[in-house]
């Protein structure tokens, strides 16, 4: 049993729910529980896609500064591995993932959101990487994932200044993908995730891996990753079902088994 994180599964959509009142501060225990939930969601056959959600009031206001403030350099050298592990484990979920952001997604909370495939924000949400105001820098992937998402210049602006951005600026710079009324953002995220229930999960996994690995390497290596993933899908039942259905019935009518 976990204290601060729950994995709830309904109709093929898994919700990883943060629940550490009042602000979902990301202490070491919560980070470990997020890693465990991510691995469980990835392994479960009844989960087709994953929503990351912090509740109606706030997504996550950042790392637990009180916990970190007393750490020595040696202690942080050890803890920094955990700090990156929980976002790595979220990013490693081989299924489509979406964050539903309400309230604040700051510091480690923003970094957590960056680890999913897409992000939906409430219209009153605030996002940012304010670590510089503590005399440090993002340590859970922010300097890397943010720059890859919005470009190095915009990432440097946010990281250098520590300023917050509202949902509409976040949408304009590509930090989030959709903005919805606060009361609707979770339902919209679930709706996005639900479209993958019954889908070709092996092809979805291959597509995610090709994109994620491809942006880390040069173009020719990325094309080779794509070639291997593409060719490998010709060994799957889903590829047979998809192509047979297309020839016989037209597009969009195939039934997939995930094999």
TrEMBL record:
Its EC number is 4.2.1.17. The keyword Thylakoid does not apply. PROSITE patterns: ENOYL_COA_HYDRATASE. SUPFAM superfamilies: ClpP/crotonase. Keywords: Isomerase, Lipid metabolism, Lyase. The keyword Isomerase applies. GO terms for molecular function: enoyl-CoA hydratase activity; isomerase activity. It catalyses: a (3S)-3-hydroxyacyl-CoA = a (2E)-enoyl-CoA + H2O; a 4-saturated-(3S)-3-hydroxyacyl-CoA = a (3E)-enoyl-CoA + H2O. GO terms for biological process: fatty acid beta-oxidation. InterPro entries: ClpP/crotonase-like_dom_sf, Enoyl-CoA_hyd/isom_CS, Enoyl-CoA_hydra/iso, Enoyl-CoA_hydra_C. It is an enzyme of class 4 (lyase). CDD domains: crotonase-like. Belongs to the enoyl-CoA hydratase/isomerase family. This is enoyl-CoA hydratase. It comes from Aeromicrobium endophyticum.
